[in-house]
Write a structure and sequence with these properties.
2 copies of one chain form a homodimer. Chain A has 482 residues and is an alpha+beta fold. Chain A folds into 3 domains: 25-282, Bira Bifunctional Protein, Domain 2 (BirA Bifunctional Protein, domain 2, 2-Layer Sandwich); 297-395, Rossmann fold, CATH 3.40.50; 414-479, 2-Layer Sandwich (Translation Initiation Factor IF3). In chain A, 35% of the residues lie in helices and 27% in strands. Chain A is built from 14 helices and 23 strands. Chain A has helices at residues 25-35, 52-71, 85-90, 92-98, 121-131, 177-199, 244-249, 273-282, 310-323, 339-348, 359-364, 385-409, 418-426, 439-449; strands at 39-41, 48-50, 75-76, 82-84, 104-105, 114-116, 140-149, 164-174, 204-207, 219-226, 232-242, 252-254, 260-262, 264-271, 299-303, 329-331, 353-357, 366-371, 377-381, 412-414, 430-434, 452-464, 471-479. In chain A, strands 3-7-8-14-11-10-9 form a 7-stranded mixed β-sheet. In chain A, strands 16-15-17-18-19 form a 5-stranded mixed β-sheet, with helices on both faces. Chain A has a 4-stranded mixed β-sheet with strand order 20-21-23-22. In chain A, a hairpin with a 6-residue loop joins β22 (452-464) and β23. In chain A, α2 (52-71) packs across α6 (177-199). The interface between A and B is large, with 61 and 61 residues.
């Protein structure tokens, strides 16, 4: 990829992360985000600047996920940033869900009131109603990559919760209920497969409870991850919207049966929040740890430079760089900072593999390779270099996933009483309980212990609702969450 | 690429363009945009929906231009959608230029007044001031692909003038004036090379007059195209910002000289307006004509279907499709509409090459190829198929450029008096005149004849200003414009 590529390393007064991840996760996260130059606080409360180091991750997410949806026949489009207020009000439940978070634009003379989009169902389906005429126009599968704004009042956190974020929102229309249900399912599966493979974040797919369902949807499927502090994180959702929006916005088609029918719809989205999940899950006391598959720069060469051997050593780095062409790599040949300083910088920034090349290595026909995930060092002969780098990249990717998965799997527990539930939630567990799927019951649990259900399922045998004492087959998985 | 790919063809009541391009360009443009499913009017005045047929062009523009800027060391990032009002006010001229077009967000309790970004100089340089410490951090080259909003009061037109549009804005900082001047120049050249090569739009590079310069810039370079009605269209700009913004926002660095210096800055951008230019310049009475290099689907196969030979003919299309793998193509095998109907549809939508395959062609080992630009038909033997398609794609691309270039070149003229100028402007010419580079003089010309300068240059010999009568070496090129 690169030889002697110039890196904007930012300031030279970098001192590494000052706290241990296990001691103070919020402070650790704050420092990693800042010092690895991933994001910066913007001069507008709750907004962030996504810096190149993190934006390149978003670009890689876009590239791979866009490829996947296009294979499924989805096409990209772009709808307006602003949505007439009257559109939200058309679908009552949807309006109720989003109204508190809307940012309105100051009305211009003679024009309607507009809000910045928090999501685009309403404005998109207004167009769909015009575009769709007959069953021949279905399925309609459209996606957009864009920014959305939700005026959160709770505390914000870069990537994980901000008033503006970047995402994709897919919106499809089908001829029948089965089409929508199938699409909802295939997309939540696609999310899981993509995120586990590329970001090494283990996920559980589950159905959202009545209380947590997307407002306006018939059914919401979620992918949930677990952060190191035992808080769950919703990483994406896929909704079966049924015919709710179709009826509101008039998304109708002439069916094969010669009759006019309402379309069956889905919507699904993932966002820049994934970057936050990845930072928090894989990072360590030295800083960011990037899964190789999502990193643009996978290998950094750090030449050990002395005046007399400088040229030879850099030339060797260039030769080795060529051997791994196609794998993002660069040579940090700056003479104004020491090898040790460079080691720290690229560890902080999470580059998966560091290759050290000094004059003595040259003599011995070897290099030193350090993998970022375990910080293990190994000496590799030049002739095995490319092969070993390829092996290590696979190994690092797998190791990150395995570590996270084992943590995730060990975090499940059960409870029979509210007291037991509260204790286990406090320990950072995902706790399985019997709970009636009723928003008022869930609300009272939330008020009592500060945790909501992450997903629900049906049990074969009946149990007793942990809160209401009613008999139920409904099971809920509860955890604190971001 | 594809075999029997499903196409969402939209409605089936398509009737083609009802006016001739030369008779009524605005109506022609309106119909092409609608009927080729490029854009739709949004329910918000002055906003548009970019439909998949046009969005795929934007994706191709992004892909190629993004590749080019990354080769130049530019990195992508993302800055907030909203900008504090106080930021605009910091740079007086910039504020004056953009204030009338700002859309403000309704203030929330205790928060400052925010505007939706019309361009991002101010919010980006606020961050740059924090990030840049020393000469080692320079050059800083950052770009963002995003949406911007400018609340135009004049009439809007899809792609060419809308209140929201998509663009890229590159923002660089250099150690010295030469660095900035060089970057401004290389980027305007990059735009010209990219747009001429991919969109087949001939351009002139020129310097903007004092009146037309970007507000806040020291110098603005423009690329100007000419539309079929003799109106010029600004297709992109590149600005040398000097140290204006650096001084306002404190973009300082410790120089190699050990002293603190202000950075020298540039910004440059192109937008979805390019899609409008392409539609208007290349389209004809049948609809859209896509330059092959920017089209995702370059070839459409239309099998001539009879029940008895259907399978054989489709199989042949699939074989031919495989022969041109890597060139975007699809087979329109719908049985519910006739070949003639399909010919019209894909001509309307501008697919560069149509391949007709019928049972008689099968017998003769040949196919019929129709090129979209000239609508010329030719019979090609199967064995020459792939070669001929490749040749034709190159030929169509070159032909579109040549035709447009010859029109552009023939549209230049000169004038010595205001009367002569007015007449030639009325004829749709780009008219070269002596004009002092003074906003007040330019304003009075604009008021008198409705045309502004598109670019200016310095003459070697002196002449007389067409309006003020003053002696001057300043030359201006005037035209009506979009």
């Amino acid at each position: 990829m690169a030889s002697e590529k110039e890196k904007n390393s930012g300031s030279f007064d970098n001192k590494g992360i000052t706290v241990k991840k296990k001691d103070d996760l919020p402070q650790w996260y704050f420092e990693v985000v800042q010092k690895a130059e991933l994001a910066d606080y913007a001069p507008i409360q709750g907004f962030m600047v996504i810096r190149p180091n993190a934006y390149s991750i978003w670009e890689n997410i876009q590239k791979e996920f866009d490829r996947r949806i296009k294979l499924r026949g989805v096409k990209n489009a772009y709808f307006p940033l602003l949505i007439p207020d009257s559109f939200f009000k058309k679908e009552a439940e949807h309006a109720e869900g989003f109204s508190p978070e809307l940012a309105y634009v100051e009305s211009k003379e003679g024009e309607e009131k507009y809000a910045i989009r928090p999501t685009s169902e309403t404005i998109m389906y207004d167009s769909y109603a015009k575009w769709i005429r007959s069953w021949r126009d279905l399925p309609l599968k459209i996606n957009q990559w864009c920014n959305v704004v939700r005026w959160e009042v709770s505390q914000t956190k870069p990537f994980l919760r901000t008033r503006e974020f970047l995402w994709q929102e897919g919106h499809c229309v089908f001829e029948n209920e089965e089409g929508a249900e199938e699409n909802m399912t295939e997309m939540i599966n696609e999310y899981k497969s993509f995120i586990e493979e590329f970001l090494a974040i283990p996920l559980v797919i589950g159905k959202k409870s009545e209380a947590e369902r997307f407002k306006g949807a018939k059914k919401t499927m979620t992918i949930e991850a677990l952060m190191p502090d035992g808080k769950a994180l919703q990483c994406g959702t896929s909704h079966n919207l049924g015919q709710n929006f179709a009826k509101t916005f008039g998304v109708k088609f002439l069916g094969k049966d010669g009759k006019e029918n309402f379309g069956w719809q889905t919507s699904w989205g993932i966002s820049t929040r994934l970057i936050g999940a990845m930072i928090m899950l894989h990072g360590d006391d030295k800083g960011l740890v990037l899964p190789p598959k999502i990193a643009s720069d996978k290998v950094v060469f750090v030449p050990i430079l002395f005046d007399s051997t400088r040229e030879k050593v850099i030339k060797k780095c260039e030769q080795l760089s060529k051997q791994i062409e196609g794998i993002g790599n660069f040579i940090d040949s700056r003479s104004e900072c020491s090898p040790g300083w460079k080691f720290n910088e690229w560890e902080l920034k999470g580059i998966p593999i560091r290759v050290e090349v000094g004059p003595k290595d040259l003599e011995k026909g070897q290099v030193v390779i350090v993998r970022r995930d375990t910080l293990e060092k190994e000496i590799v002969s030049e002739k095995d270099f490319a092969k070993r780098v390829n092996e290590l990249l696979v190994d690092i990717q797998n190791n990150l996933f395995k570590k996270a998965k084992s943590f995730f799997d060990s975090s499940f527990d059960e409870a029979k009483t509210m007291k037991e539930l509260e204790k286990k939630i406090g320990e950072g567990k995902i706790v399985k309980v019997f709970m009636v799927n009723d928003p008022s019951v869930e609300k009272s649990i939330k008020e009592e212990i500060g945790a909501a259900s992450r997903w629900v399922e049906e049990s074969k045998k009946e149990g007793v609702c942990i809160k209401s004492g009613k008999k139920t087959k409904s099971i809920a998985y509860l955890a604190r969450n971001y």
